[in-house]
Amino acid sequence: MKYWSINNFGRGFKQKKDVTVEEVGVAVSGSKNIEVIDDTKIGVRPGFSYLGTRSTDRYGILDGGSWKTSTGDEYALRTYSDGTNGFVEVYIGTTWETLIDDIATQGASFLNRGAGNLLGWWSSTEVQDLLLFVDGSDSIFMWSGGSTTYASATANTLTKQGTTSWAEERFLTAGTRQGRIKDDAGTWHTFTYTGGESTTTLTGVDVDLTALSLTAGAVVLQEVRESTTTPSAGLSNDFIGLYLNYLFVFDRQRNTVEMSKNTDYTDFSAPTFPRLAGEASDFNLDETPTSVITQADGEALYISTKNQWYQFIFSPSSDLSKEEIVIKPLKTSPLEGATNNLAVTNMKNYTVYTSGEPTIDFLGNVENVSTPQSISLSDDIKGFIDVAGVDKASSTYYKNKFYTTIKEDSDDNANNRIIIRNLRLGIWETPWTIPASVLFEYGGDLYAHDPATKNTYKLLDSNYSDNYVSEAIQSPISAKWYSSYTDFDLPFNKKKFNLMWVDGYIRANTELDIILTYDFGEQSVKRTLKGTDDNVVIVQTGGGLGYYSLGNRSLGGRSETLTETGLRRFRGFISIPERPFYELQVSFQSEKLGARWELCSYALNISAIEGQSNNLKF
Q1: Whether residue 554 has pLDDT greater than 60
Q2: Which of 433, 461, 489 is the last residue in one of the domains?
Q3: Are residues 284 and 318 in the same domain?
Q4: For the chain, does the N or the C end have fewer beta carbons within 10 angstroms?
Q5: Are 278 and 322 in a shared domain?
Q6: 88 shares its domain with 20
């Protein structure tokens, strides 16, 4: 008996061609929450859990990410609005702490070198980098990254826990310096200090902290410093960029871009002529700006408008005293600019962004072309991207994959899909139904800020459930893989089969639905494989099974054993009632808490029915 088989699912997801002509092994429209595993298998995507306590507040996260400081610290940050004020929070220990609670309601926009990868401005005075952000007002905000815990206080001093100094914990040593401390009731108190940064005790504290209810270990943070009317009064500082330590300030309603001195992010004074190296400047674009990012190789700065990309190149004079800034418009077409400042990131040697066309493109050098070119990455999923909402798109690179969060439909209010480009295989994964406003790497793991609630998620979680808090609080993942409709290379003949072979891996708690759909819904047949079905599932026993032990077998790129995953090997035949058909679609689906399965192959004993149906004549 001859079988028609599929044992390679590494072609990923496509939504461009008709489902009757798409190549075999490709996932088509309707597929979701599936990932390609070990290049050839498919399975349920991992789930997500919460970073910090789960919140029920309906305040979506607007921006944020991870800041890896020059001193080796790493902070996760996020910003949101309650409708009255904007907030910035930083993750300290296991808690999201409030850094500032009175910025504008559009929230903070941070310096970033790609969505979610926050960037610090270097201060030669403090000899460390500083986190800068704006909120749509005419102010620039700065946080030093200062964070420690309370030990004791007097009427005008504050002593920290540990042996490191306040300066070593990134507290400011110059200018007007303030801190904030959270009392036992959770209320924040701001104080000014004037000295003691090189020791463990601050002096000149202007608040008597002994009057507060403070327990050893209370959180102490550097207060955010605000520079008002910077660059000038009346501007809307909507987003910022950084290149060669120059701060670029953008107003989405103005064509003018302001650039600070590279030694002072608050100094935008007019330059001399010819301009000296390090001086401020300003530039006029043909349209209002939408995004900014440093070129992947660091050789230039990219600035985008709705329809145009510009390359800013800084060229020093021969004696290094003067500096010319050359602005090159790149060859782009209408709507090929980035939709917003989170829609652009660097991926290896390229800058990748979501355009308003809409497409997902990359900017980079092409052989025999002198200037960077814009090339589409999303052609294979054009049908999906064309109807998606990309105005709030956000992208990031993580472990050889490129992640973009978008809206499934342009009418949706917030991003609710994540699409993934597998760079090694050169394919797209199926869409993931996960809400995300910003994607970012933190502590070596991938995270997402929720656009609808005040929550941050750890993605790629091994629980294989969404919204995971505990075994009692979690949500199932609806995973669906649909094949194209195939005629098995016999387009003129009806076909038949009565046996289907499947093999792969499955958890005991999982039920895998196998659905066969004949001739565009004329009939469907469903069979369910249970992870407890001992007829086809190999259950590991203490001393091993057959000729080898499954318990120590590593599973591909995950470096997990079968014992760690709870997966069991399955293989076997499914009896299917024989019926004639022209085209067939195969689907594998699951939706159960903690469900996990991996499919290696399936096969059908297809045979042609001689002759053709006269009913198709016209």
Answers
A1: no
A2: 461
A3: yes
A4: C
A5: yes
A6: no
Half-sphere exposure of 454 (CA within 13 A, CB side): 21
Residue 473 falls inside a structural domain: no
Which tops the pLDDT comparison, 557 or 563? Answer: 563
Q: Are residues 277 and 305 in the same domain?
A: yes
DSSP designation for 384: H
- Give yes or no for a contact between 238 and 108, defined as CB atoms under 8 angstroms apart: no
pLDDT tens column, 286-317: 999 999 999 888 889 999 999 999 999 999 88
How many Cα atoms sit within 13 Å of 3 on the Cβ side?
13
Q: Token pair for residue 284?
A: 């006029």
- Split into its structural domains, the chain has a count of 3
What's the pLDDT score for residue 113?
72
Is the per-residue pLDDT at 610 higher than 80? no
Q: Is there a single domain that holds both residue 119 and residue 256?
A: yes
Q: Which long-range contacts (CB under 8 A, 24 or more apart) does 79-83 make?
A: 79/103, 79/107, 79/108, 79/110, 79/133, 80/107, 80/454, 81/105, 81/106, 81/107, 82/57
Q: Which of 57, 59, 70 minimizes the C-alpha distance to 130? A: 70
Please give the pLDDT value at position 566: 86
**pLDDT at site 293:** 93
Identify the pLDDT of residue 349: 82
The average confidence (pLDDT) of the chain is: 91
Confidence tier at 492 by pLDDT (50, 70, 90): confident
240 and 92 share one domain: yes
Q: What is the mean pLDDT of residues 490-497?
A: 90
470 in a structural domain = no
Statement to judge: residues 279 and 166 lie in one domain: no
Q: What distances in angstroms separate CA 371 from CA 329, 330, 332, one per listed residue?
A: 10, 7, 11
* End position of a domain, from candidates 205, 225, 245: 225
Q: How many CB atoms lie within 10 A of CB 151?
A: 17
- Residue 175 domain-assigned? yes
Mean pLDDT of 121-127: 97
Q: Contacts for 309-312 with beta carbons within 8 Å, 24 or more apart?
A: 309/336, 309/337, 309/363, 309/372, 309/374, 310/285, 311/371, 311/372, 312/243, 312/283
Residue range(s) defining the domain that contains residue 208: 147-225
CB 247 within 8 A of CB 265: yes
The CATH number given to whatever domain includes residue 9 is: 2.60.120
**Which residue type is seen at 100?**
I
* Tally of CA atoms within 13 A in the half-sphere of 136 that contains its CB: 11
Q: Which of 330, 380, 339 is nearest to 358 (CA)?
A: 339
